[in-house]
Known about the structure:
Low-confidence stretches: 13-28
Strand order of the largest sheet: 1-2
Order of helices and strands: HHHHHEEHHH
Number of strands: 2
Structural class: mainly alpha
Shape: elongated
Helix content: 55-70%
Strand content: under 5%
Radius of gyration: 19 Å
Number of helices: 8
Amino acid sequence: MQSAFDLIKTSIYIDSTDADRLLPSSGSDYWKARSTITETLPEYEAQYPPKGKADKNYLNVRKYISQFKAVNEQAYLARLKDSEDHRIKSGWLKERIQKNLGIEVKVATKKIPSVVGPITALDGPGTLAQNAGVSGFQDALTTACTQYREEDPNHWTALQSAVGAMEGAKCKLPPGV
Length: 177
């Protein structure tokens, strides 16, 4: 448990599309701490089944488990931010969706606590609502998003790895995942 916290303290998050940092095999950034959490947390948590609220040792352990889960969520959100930033900066939204579909795509900016800067991302529900009357729009939007996953597999793989890490550590997934 302590070794994972030590890794978290020394890990860095680099807002970059460097392939070495996109996939969890990279040991020099937050993925190393992430994999340590994922491998350690379920086993560690199983050693401390629910006990009385007066048990101070138990409460201390539960506090660390909660912190581990929070760190896992923040690492996922950092990966999501990197993926969405890349998708927008690369002009993907304009080129692949607006140009090909001929429909304006809504983009939403949302501030998420503990993540540096806001996340700007495709506003799927807003775009769908805005174009509710357009025949076949939802299918076309889904197809365009799927094409992006195929064209930029590193970001998609990293994001799915982040979701897998959260599921493996029995963490609550953020809304919309």
